[in-house]
Amino acid sequence: MNRHHAYAATSLGELLLVAHGDDLVGIYFPDHRYPPRAESLGERVEPADVSVLEETARQLGEYLGGSRTHFDLPLKTAADEFSESVWQILRTLSFGQTTTYGAIATTLGNPHLAQRVGWPVGHNPLSIVVPCHRVVGANGSLTGFAGGLERKRALLELEGSVSMDRLF
């Protein structure tokens, strides 16, 4: 299967979208903390050239415009079992719902894994669609985000999940 990438202009900057065959495998912000390797991107195309990239750009636009609360895209990740289990939990979070690293660790059966949960949350290759921005600190504070805290703040504000006063 072929890999392709395209860029989608959004209110959060020009997002890099990566597809492998018919599946979406990556969404990255400008200056993403953990960007993909250049050799993993495949051919550069326009979003309209690859249906999953076109659909991703459309759904991201709707979400950021306030008319979409969930995504319906074919996703594929390839990581270790622990990371996959964390990302699966993130996929269950509803629009506007937040959780903590500790709550995810508890769901996985060991509340002492909260720090370990941070790695897959931070290295999530499908930003926004697999909503790692919905993970906050134990006290509700804004914590790290590979796309930057300002973007995380904007996403949480869009979803109305926390008041802006709590995020500063």
Task: Give an overview of the whole structure.
- The chain has 2 domains: 3-64; 81-167, Winged helix-like DNA-binding domain superfamily/Winged helix DNA-binding domain (Arc Repressor Mutant, subunit A).
- Helices cover 31% and strands 17% of the residues.
- It is built from 5 helices and 6 strands.
- The protein has helices at residues 51-64, 81-91, 101-107, 114-122, 149-159, and strands at 3-10, 13-20, 23-28, 43-44, 99-100, 135-136.
- The strands form 2 sheets. Strands 3-2-1-4 form a 4-stranded mixed β-sheet. The protein has a two-stranded parallel ribbon with strand order 5-6.
- β2 and β3 form a beta hairpin.
- α2 crosses α4 (114-122) and α3 (101-107) packs across α4 (114-122).
- The protein is globular.
